[in-house]
Write a sequence for this structure.
DNA sequence: GTGTATGCAAACCGTTTGCATAAGG
DNA sequence: CCTTATGCAAACGGTTTGCATACAC
């Protein structure tokens, strides 16, 4: 059980370790693709009695404290994932699966942009949409 | 006046050239940053009497016919721009201004991803967030 | 005990849908 | 004339807010 880790992590982020939050963190740790509020809510419900509103408040709390980050895949809703090392996503337009890619050569490109446009880049988003290996068959 | 061009363009896309659509196309042509439904609605209202619903329907029609494309900047709403040559955006987190960049070296990176992950890339999104030249001062 | 987190109800915003009317070709 | 676009009203899904209560520390 990672329960203790999650509690500690929450307290370290100056958040009270409530049951809902602990389970939410566990769900984030277990899920391999970014979750949206509805998925998180449904999975939470299996273990704790929690309100939808609380889920949104948790998400915002976690975001504020930098525990998670928000992503959008153009679905008209937000997704969230643990705020780990920078990476990008391969989103299958057929089955919806999401794979992570860690390598990114955009930094060099960013430097170029910086020089040319005098734009100070703080972060960037890069998502690839297409067909995963399975769905190509 | 570009009115005639817009009408022609609409008809070429097999869409009836109604006043609202013609003005909408003109607004797209004039605006240098991607517009959202509300901005488009307000600007349309200055020239034609149009309903909010009609704006959304127009946007979807234009999307279907490939006249425009949809973009998201993580604002919880969609933005739209004319479907011209591929480019990416520099979004200023301070003033909200958006600059276009045309050069993109992501293709090479995409090939790499393709080989490594056997993922067939159909399109990608790449947006830079930071501070524009003005807002750095 | 004190301040933070939660539940509930209600509202908000962007967007979609159904249906009858209007208008482009 | 026939089909497509529009307006209006209503609904939808995701998200936020106000307020009183419950709970973590």
């Amino acid at each position: 059980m990672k329960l203790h880790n999650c509690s500690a992590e929450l307290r370290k982020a100056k958040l009270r370790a409530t049951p809902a939050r602990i389970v939410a963190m566990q769900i984030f740790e277990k899920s391999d693709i970014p979750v949206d509020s509805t998925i998180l809510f449904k999975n939470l419900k299996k273990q704790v009695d929690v309100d939808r509103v609380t889920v949104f408040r948790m998400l915002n709390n976690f975001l504020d404290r930098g525990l998670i980050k928000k992503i959008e895949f153009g679905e008209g809703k937000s997704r969230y994932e643990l705020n780990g090392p920078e990476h990008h996503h391969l989103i299958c337009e057929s089955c919806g699966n999401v794979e992570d890619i860690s390598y990114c050569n955009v930094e060099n490109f960013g430097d170029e942009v910086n020089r040319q446009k005098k734009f100070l880049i703080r972060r960037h988003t890069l998502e690839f949409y297409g067909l995963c290996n399975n769905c190509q068959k």
